[in-house]
Amino acid sequence: MLAAAPELVNLTCPLCRAPRQTSRLGLAEVYLSEGDFVLEGMLRCGASGCPGRFPVLQGVPIVLKDFRSWWQSSTAPRSGPLCSSPQMSSYLGRVVADSYPQQALLSTYMTHHYGSNDDAYWQAVTRAIPEQDCGRALELGCSVGGFVFAAARRAKVSVGIDLDFNLVAAAAGIQRSGEVQYRRLRRARAFEDVHFDFEVPGNVVFLVADALDPPLLAEDWDLVAALNLLDNVALPTVLLGQMNALLRSGRRLVLGSPYQWRPDITDPGEWLETDAMDSASMVRAILFEQLIPPMQLHYQPVFDEPDLDWTLIQHDRQRRSYRVDLIVARKD
Ligand SMILES: C[S@@+](CC[C@H](N)C(=O)[O-])C[C@H]1O[C@@H](n2cnc3c(N)ncnc32)[C@H](O)[C@@H]1O
Questions:
Q1: Distance from the CA of 158 to the center of ligand 1, in angstroms?
Q2: How many CB atoms lie within 10 A of CB 230?
Q3: How many domains does the chain have?
Q4: How far apart are CA 322 and CA 110, in angstroms?
Q5: Which residue CA neighbors atom 11 of ligand 1 most closely?
């Protein structure tokens, strides 16, 4: 995390959500740093009486209302104790290592974000970022950060949030080192080391935070994106409402999803589709025709790519393909 990150992002406390200025989070303690980067430290809420304290681990602020529950979940760190000496953490990283599913997931998303940026999917997705200065850009569910870095090249500040510590820590590692480095799965258990330089813009911040309860100010963002997140949350309408709340009027929403609803993630009652209406139609009706009036969503279409092929490579002989509906819209 850059030392100036809390100010750049306008981080607000998810515990008290006190009025704009008082619940701002600031870096109160620095335990370990590397140049401008704070690797370990503590953010605190500025509101009097609020107990909000949020740790920074491996350069990633974790700004969640319920840290303890998250710590028990599969999205928390798995790479052994989070010790402070680089030699020991690198040793533990190699010996204890992440679990195989986590290594495989990291391999898939690093390859997707940094290994195939010239494919039609990335071209369409980056076309959603305005050519001219796009101001303050935010991606919810950013994974390893490819879109956040792409947006940063045209934005004042570009922020990515995700619940998965390992993915966000990989993005923050690229930002710190200027290198993409990961173990790519080639066969079921054979990894190959991938390593190359990556030009890192200086205006990027990554956080562990919940897209359904983001520690961010309302109407503070000029571009809010969620790529392949809508069908990965328990409450998709809450995600749409949060995106709308974060976005300034006249600014850009970028929403992409294959609508691969899964009952273990999203209760079928919350799926944005019915027997009579598919998800692509329902999401457009919500955004453009006020299908759910209390949500007060008023958008104009900018462009869409309703049948975008999206392929995730697990290893050389396994890949998963989806057809993503990409909607780019302007908030009235
Ligand atoms: C299918 S992946 C898509 C990642 C990336 N946007 C892309 O398109 O390559 C969904 C991501 O959303 C994250 N995620 C799921 N629920 C979330 C939540 N409530 N808040 C933030 N991130 C979340 C997951 O950890 C995962 O990285």
A1: 17
A2: 27
A3: 1
A4: 18
A5: 141
In a domain, 288, yes or no: yes
pTM (two decimals): 0.91
Ligand 1 atom with least separation from CA of 211: 20
What's the domain range around 129? Answer: 99-331
Does 23 reside within a domain? Answer: no
**Which of 125, 140, 162 is the pocket-test mutation for ligand 1 (most atoms within 8 Å of CB)?**
162
CATH number of the domain that residue 281 is part of: 3.40.50.150
Residue whose Cα lies nearest atom 1 of ligand 1: it is 228
Q: What length is written for the chain? A: 332
Atom of ligand 1 nearest to the CA of 226: 6
Over 50: is that where the pLDDT of 326 sits? yes
Asked if residue 86 is part of any domain, the answer here is no
Look over the chain and give the mean of its residue pLDDT values, rounded to a whole number.
Answer: 90
Q: How many CB atoms lie within 10 A of CB 190?
A: 11
- Asked whether the beta carbons of 227 and 243 are under 8 A apart, the reply is no
Residue 226 Cα to ligand 1 middle (Å): 8
Residue 9 domain-assigned (yes or no)? no
What is the pLDDT confidence band of residue 276, given thresholds at 50, 70 and 90?
very high
